[in-house]
Amino acid sequence: MKIERIDVYQKTYTVVEEVYAWSRGRSVSSLDGTVVKLTTDEGLVGYGECVPLGAAYMPSYAEGVRTGLRELGPQLIGLDPLHLKAMNTFMDSVMAGHGYVKTPIDVACWDLLGKATGQPISTLLGARYVEDFPIYRALSQGTPEEMVESAARYRAQGIRHFQMKVGGTADEDIPRIKAVLDSVQDGEVVVADANTGWNLHQATRVVNALRGERVYIEQPCPTLAECLSVRSRTSLPMVLDEVITGVPAFLEAYSQSAMDVINIKVSRVGGLTKAAQLRDLAQDLGVAVDLEDAASGDIMASALAHLVASTRPEAFFTASIWNYRLRESISPDAPRPENGRVPVPKGPGLGITIDQEALGPPLFSIT
Ligand code: 0XW
Ligand code: MG
Fold first, then answer.
1. Cα 59 to chain centroid, rounded
2. Which one, of 358, 365, 219, 361, lies nearest residue 297 by Cα?
3. Which residues approach ligand 1 with their CB closer than 6 A?
4. What are the pLDDT digits (tens) for 199-217?
5. pLDDT surpasses 90 at 24
6. Has 11 been annotated as catalytic?
7. DSSP code for 344
8. What is the value of pTM for the model shown?
9. Domains in the chain, ordered, with CATH?
């Protein structure tokens, strides 16, 4: 099988909650996504996408995905999309870094492999431990009262795991976290995600104020060295996210016992192939995983569902999808949460149908 044509689409999404805010004054109210459709010489089509969370969350941005695809795409024509490892090795040999550009190609190749073999991606990733799974909900940064109120609203929708967006000053964050902790119920999980927003003295004040509380701390500071320093001052469990850029970064952090959980963002590590490799390693080493992407439309939400389904249940910490938080949709049957749980699609490949009309005409095509 050979890739014969690559169509690239642009899709603008608006965030239902209107503004989603996190540390350092960053926020989004709309998202600019890129969808890739691969067509093969046998007429099979596969879809992938990359939806950056604006340009300030991590080193990726919407126009960068498209510019990267203009550079990379022509070199992929004629390659066999079913040989995922060879495809990734090739992409890495002709373009250094820019994993977020390669992500939609990699996901579309998995969709093709599934359709060619008649199997869902989860089965091809080696397991289908669950048919549905719980997601967490991020609490957009706000006053303590607003964050407690968001948690109550999401609890009513079946959510039991809350990730608070903190990363302000210690004086702002300590009351936020305490207020939400006071409102949680038995069995619920609270993570305080600073998204690199604290420096050492702020982080130290926050973890000291939370000693003994049932809260996880996520990515307190920008660098691994700073996060390790915070970890040495607290016994609260730690999640690392922004610094986990791939297997080498994970192994460096693991060798220093830097975390209990990693947050794997598919487009940060460069696609589903690499995310699954990192997930496999983490679960073998006893580190639990949070599986998500910076943001996700219907396609990435489906890819994530398959990644979760193939994760050993004891290694699964939590997951997140974004498509249900966006007003626009490109798939009528993409997974969406019901009572806080997301079903894993059953059909071949991603297991969803794409509404070509909702996608509109391609922005550009490579043949
Ligand atoms: C990437 N975020 C800021 C958005 C997602 O909702 C989760 C969060 C994170 O850093 O984990
Ligand atoms: Mg995070």
1. 14
2. 358
3. 22, 53, 57, 138, 193, 195, 241, 263, 294, 320
4. 999 999 999 999 999 999 9
5. no
6. no
7. P
8. 0.97
9. 3-118+356-366 (3.30.390.10), 124-343 (3.20.20.120)
